[in-house]
Specification:
Layout (H helix, E strand, L loop, with lengths): L1 H8 L8 H22 L3 H13 L1 E3 H8 L3 H13 L3 E5 L7 E5 L1 H10 L2 H9 L3 H20 L2
Antiparallel strand pairs: 1-3, 2-3
């Protein structure tokens, strides 16, 4: 009976690493809310814009891979960002399946309004620089390991 209880202990919510990661992610996205509202961006749009600020021109495939988003999720996000004037989308003349996304001047200006958000969010987490770096590394390590199993 004791061994059976130990087996079922693995099913307790308090023994799961997935739950605090899930709850923390939900809370972190909620904490972003007021800052992103000032930019009139959703969290997913903000992620796309961070990639665009870093690269200026990317393919939709690169965006999809980089952000772990499928095209069904990415397409409406890109449409809204284009409508807002932050990006341009163009089909390749050589291969119409290839969509190139480029940052506009308005999109570049938005970067200045967003520049303090990462530091603000890191501060709200209440972690030391060392703890923050460790969390970052461990999270990406777990993600990479899980992706390699697919």
């Amino acid at each position: 009976m004791a061994e059976e209880k130990r087996n079922y202990d693995a099913l307790k919510l308090q023994n799961q690493v997935c739950f605090p990661l899930y709850a923390c992610t939900k809370e972190l996205v909620r904490q972003y809310g007021p800052y992103l509202k000032q930019l009139d961006l959703t969290y997913t749009q903000y992620l796309v814009m961070m990639v665009m600020w870093e690269n200026e021109v990317v393919s939709s495939r690169e965006l999809s891979d980089c952000l772990c988003l499928d095209y069904g999720t990415l397409t409406p996000v890109l449409k809204r960002l284009q409508k807002a004037g932050y990006i341009n989308k163009e089909r390749s003349e050589e291969d119409e399946r290839l969509l190139t996304v480029s940052l506009t001047q308005k999109g570049r200006k938005l970067k200045e309004k967003a520049v303090n958000i990462p530091a603000t969010m890191a501060e709200c987490m209440g972690l030391s620089n060392e703890e923050f770096e460790m969390l970052y590394k461990l999270t990406y390590k777990a993600l990479k390991n899980m992706e390699s199993k697919n």
